Amino acid sequence: MTCPWCGSNEVERAAPFGPQLMVEQYFCRRCGSPFGRIRQRGAGGD
Ligand SMILES: [Zn+2]
Fold it and tell me: Is residue 25 part of a domain?
């Protein structure tokens, strides 16, 4: 998992977004930018 803005892997998971939890919210500790990742159903669990 890397930041789409600066490419850093210093990211941490933030609170889930949306009632279906289809988007996971992450936060980059390096550049301070939040970003989301759409969960891929059936792509390996979690
Ligand atoms: Zn970043």
Answer: yes
21: left (phi over 0), alpha (psi -120 to 50) or beta: left
* pLDDT tens, the chain, 46 aa long: 899 999 999 999 987 655 666 788 899 999 999 998 887 776 555 5
Instruction: Report the domain count for the chain.
Output: 1
Ligand 1 centroid to 31 CA: how many Å?
4
For residue 25, the CA-to-ligand 1 centroid distance in Å is 13
Domain span at 34: 1-39
C-alpha to C-alpha distance for 28 and 2, rounded to whole angstroms = 8
pTM exceeds cut of 0.85 = no
Residue 45 lies in a domain: no
